[in-house]
Amino acid sequence: MAVLINNPVAGILAANYGSFYDTTTQNNGGATTANVMTLNTTDIASGISVVSNSRITFAMPGTYNILFSSQFLRSGGTGFSTIDVWLQKNGVDVESSTGAFNVPQSGGKTVASWDYMVNANAGDYWEFYWCSSDTSVQMWAAAAGTGPTRPTTPSVAVTVQQVA
């Protein structure tokens, strides 16, 4: 477990951090469903973990920057569909955390990304949620591509960095 250490001799600042993502397409559960963003892979982490596939959990208190990036796909329909994304802390919606954006017509993709600065106590957890009234909207993951060769596309990626 990492802790915030300031070493003036070496000029090194060590802190808690984490990078997580999900390799599966995540479907919209319905027009009135709050969908939790799941994270099935830990890339790198110290002092931060994912519990129950979605809970970004902190081992140490501090101030953290949490950033998510997700790619949404609309598999059918015309016009635009609106998607809302928000943050929960310990199972409770975080006031003023919702952002809304649109995905274009059938086959259209949109990347959504923003960050939050939060204060966390040891044991706190944070989760990202999303919803859309259009059930053809999903958080889209893709296999590696060819022509040119390129890596897989996760449906969501989350990074966390302790800043204080």
Give the name of the CATH architecture: Sandwich
Query: In terms of structural class, how would the helical and strand content be classed?
Result: mainly beta
Number of helical regions: 0
Question: Globular, elongated, flat, extended or rod-shaped: what is the shape?
Answer: globular
Largest sheet: 7 strands, antiparallel
Helix-strand string: EEEEEEEEEEEEEEEE
Strand tally: 16
Average pLDDT confidence is 91
- Percent of residues in helices comes to under 10%
Outline the low-pLDDT stretches. none
CATH top level is: Mainly Beta
Report, as a whole number of angstroms, the end-to-end distance: 16 Å
CATH topology-level name: Jelly Rolls
Global Rg = 17 Å
How many domains, as an integer? 1
Estimate the strand proportion. over 45%
Keywords:
164 residues; seven-stranded antiparallel beta sheet; Jelly Rolls; mainly beta
Tell me what the structure shows:
By secondary structure, this protein is mostly beta strands. It has one domain: Sandwich (Jelly Rolls), CATH 2.60.120.40. The protein is built from no helices and 16 strands. The chain has strands at residues 5-7, 12-14, 17-22, 26-27, 35-36, 41-46, 48-51, 55-58, 62-74, 81-89, 92-93, 99-103, 109-120, 125-131, 137-139, 156-162. Strands 3, 4, 6, 9, 13, 15 and 16 form a seven-stranded antiparallel sheet that branches. Strands 5, 7, 8, 10, 11, 12 and 14 form a seven-stranded antiparallel sheet that branches. The relative contact order is 0.30. The model has no long low-confidence stretch (mean pLDDT 91).
